[in-house]
């Protein structure tokens, strides 16, 4: 990657597929970020870039050592990454490329004997619910659903704008969807960051993000 391309990438700002890190100082946090990218649509971490987008530079070898250690000890299964060093005027930026995984869900170690799954929602790594985690291993949606996905998504968003919060059963009834189809569609929209699932209640419900 050339300097100009790096500058343009930084100008995009942090988001669903991009995160800035001044340096890798918290292995557990970076493990959650790595796992969330691999579990969603992939992404990039730019080490040597501060939160405001200013370049401070980093020691590539030191940062790669910290990342590799986090990947091997705090990610299960280990996340696949590629590294690229880009020399800028202010210092070297380490570009960490995490492709979307074929072996999801990946888990990050929170503490001893406590491993959790995360996905990327906007610019945050969000802990998944059991429903989302299970869906990561499912086969892709059927062709019929794919053909109507845009129309169905808009219907879901309309319902949430009207009712504020709805359960899976509500969507099945109001949108006239089977349980399997409604669940797949809702999980897909959670992964895309369009809606948020609240699973701390007795019966999980959904709201607009």
Please outline the helices and strands.
Layout: H1 3-11, E1 18-21, H2 27-39, E2 43-47, H3 60-74, E3 75-76, E4 82-88, E5 91-98, E6 107-111, E7 114-121, E8 124-127, H4 130-135, H5 143-163, E9 166-167, H6 168-174, H7 179-191, E10 195-198, E11 205-208
Helix pairs in contact: 2-3, 5-7, 6-7
Q: Structural class of the secondary elements?
A: alpha+beta
DSSP helical segment count = 7
State which percent range the strand residues make up.
25-35%
Strand order of the largest sheet: 1-2-5-4
Q: What's the CATH superfamily of the largest domain, by name?
A: Schlafen, AAA domain
The counted number of beta strands is: 11
Q: Compute the CA-based radius of gyration.
A: 19 Å
Assembly annotation? single chain
Q: What is the CATH class designation of the largest domain?
A: Alpha Beta
Largest sheet: 4 strands, mixed
What's the average pLDDT? 88
Q: Tell me the domain tally.
A: 2
Q: What is the CATH topology assignment of the largest domain? A: Methyltransferase, Cobalt-precorrin-4 Transmethylase, Domain 2
Question: Could you give the order of the helices and strands?
Answer: HEHEHEEEEEEHHEHHEE
Cα distance spanning the termini: 34 Å
CATH architecture assignment of the largest domain: 2-Layer Sandwich
Organism: Rufibacter sediminis
Domain Schlafen AlbA-2: 14-127
Pfam family, one: SLFN_AlbA_2
Coiled coil: 142-169
List keywords for this structure.
7 helices, alpha+beta, 4-stranded antiparallel β-sheet, elongated, Methyltransferase, Cobalt-precorrin-4 Transmethylase, Domain 2, 209 residues, Arc Repressor Mutant, subunit A, single chain
